[in-house]
Design goal:
The structure is a homodimer of 133-residue chains. Chain A is mainly α and 133 residues long. Chain A contains six helices and two strands, in the order H-H-H-E-E-H-H-H. Chain A has a two-stranded antiparallel sheet. Chain A is elongated. At the A-B interface, helix 1 and helix 5 of A face helix 1 and helix 5 of B. Chain A binds a DNA duplex (30 and 30 nucleotides) through helix 3.
DNA sequence: TTATAATGATACATTAGTTGTGTCATTTGT
DNA sequence: ACAAATGACACAACTAATGTATCATTATAA
């Protein structure tokens, strides 16, 4: 399963790199060199981070990206929401109707309990807490 | 995200139905009627459950399926393994190499900790524990 | 002031996994 | 013999993830 998709993962790595270079702009060219991610894909990702207020961007020569807020105010859940949508441990198979089996089967209950647990744990993760010192 | 895919979900529902009708064979025709799943898809699923020793199958008229072992010996993890492969909260993006960022970033550590937690919880779930009485 | 290096916007392409279908063979009870 | 069931297995459609390409715009430095 995928708790985290590749774009979220790339985003985290890029952000981590930016955190480690705070105080200056970091360009995509530089990040591609360091992180070994495909350039056009990374561009798209960084653009989305800009649109969503995670990064500030600067055009033109010597341009690039900087964090838009402090690392302890950027949550993993923010990133997951941008690239993967609202966190849900297991989308309901039955969009409209409730599962016809729900009255005999506890699966949904169990899944919701797991979801709550994971959500609690994951909610604490920020860029700051991810940085190794 | 998908902790559980649709085939696993259908499998659970079918098995739950079989549990509720223990002591006799249950045919696919009957299950389709009750569970409102697509018939060819359910056939494939049940066949896999047979091959993997979860169900015993009986051919011919009045044939169908029965549990191959007790409901408290059939684990959700068994089913997930059959339809989704070995449980992993988040496959490593980097098949061969380790993540080049691992020395600066704690993401993998965090994910592994979440995985352990979920695995512990999910390991306790069996067909028996899913049945509402 | 012009070349260059950067991002903005956006459409398109590829791939893999999920979700399903269809068909012919075999078995078994009546 | 017939009908109702599963066995085996190939194929099809759909979707989401992953990745590419292109033209426009902006800003700096020579």
């Amino acid at each position: 399963m995928k708790l985290i998709t590749r774009d979220t993962d790339y985003a985290i790595r890029a952000l981590n790199y930016i955190v480690c270079n705070e105080g200056r702009t970091v360009s995509i060219t530089e990040m591609v060199r360091e992180l070994k991610t495909p350039k056009p894909f990374l561009r798209k990702i960084l653009q989305l981070l800009g649109i969503n207020g995670i990064l500030k961007s600067y055009k033109g020569k010597n341009g690039g990206f900087m964090l838009a807020r402090e690392p302890d105010k950027i949550f993993l859940l923010d990133l997951m929401k941008i690239f993967q949508g609202q966190f849900k441990i297991s989308e309901c198979i039955f969009k409209k109707d409730t599962c016809p089996n729900q009255q005999y089967c506890l699966l949904r209950t169990e899944l919701e309990s797991i979801e709550k647990m994971v959500l609690e744990k994951i909610s604490a993760i920020t860029l700051k807490s991810l940085k190794k010192n």
